[in-house]
Write a structure and sequence with these properties.
- Strand 8 and strand 9 form a beta hairpin.
- The strands form two sheets. Strands 1, 3, 5, 6 and 7 form a five-stranded antiparallel β-sheet that branches. A four-stranded mixed β-sheet has the order 2-9-8-4, with no helix packed on it.
- Helix content is 36%, strand content 34%.
- The longest helix has 61 residues.
- The protein has two domains: 63 residues; 114 residues, Sandwich (Immunoglobulin-like), CATH 2.60.40.4140.
- By secondary structure, it is an alpha+beta fold.
- The protein has two helices and nine strands, in the order αββββαβββββ.
């Protein structure tokens, strides 16, 4: 009987050691994951501010109410949730919300088939006031698209229009190349 009691005691100590090690590993794993997400969020915030700074600089240099970060965008087939940043600036100098600034995204020319299905947001061919961010007289928008793997190489021109009451419509285009 004494041997059975010692075996029971050893097993319970072993069980406690395993539980302590498991809890320590769980805590270390949670801290690691938290750190990864914190770093990723900080990186996105820095990148987002750098993109906005570049778009704002384009307003100053070009003096045009629509700024597209790049005129030619090349996306590989099978790319999901690819974002193309766009910015708008009111011509009146008033706040974008105050003047009821509206935008519209349209497909214009190209040889891509099914492009309207790749654009996740915003909706095509529809005026909208739903901007990603609005800061004073500037409004920012991300055109998000996912390109299926099965798509053939092609080219699509995308037109982004902005409408401001009393100033009418202004637009810019960029070319989407599918590689």
């Amino acid at each position: 009987m004494i041997k059975n009691k010692q075996g029971g005691f050893e097993m319970s100590v072993t069980t406690l050691v395993v539980i302590v090690i498991a809890v320590v590993m769980l805590i270390l794993g949670l801290v690691f994951v938290r750190q990864i997400f914190k770093t990723a969020t900080e990186s996105m915030t820095v990148m987002d501010s750098q993109i906005k700074t570049k778009l704002n600089k384009m307003f100053e240099e070009e003096g045009y109410p629509v700024a597209v970060l790049t005129k030619v965008v090349t996306v590989k087939r099978g790319t999901e949730a690819f974002s193309i940043p766009i910015a708008f600036q009111t011509q009146s100098g008033e706040g974008a919300v105050d003047v009821s600034l509206e935008y519209k995204v349209e497909l214009k020319g190209g040889d891509c088939i099914g492009t309207e299905n790749w654009i996740i947001s915003p909706e095509l061919e529809r005026k909208s006031k739903d901007f990603s961010t609005v800061v004073a007289d500037k409004a920012y928008l991300d055109i998000v698209l996912s390109v299926p793997k099965t798509v053939a190489k092609c080219r699509q021109i995308i037109k982004i229009s902005v409408y401001e009451p009393d100033y009418g419509e202004s637009y810019d285009t960029f070319t989407l190349n599918i590689a």
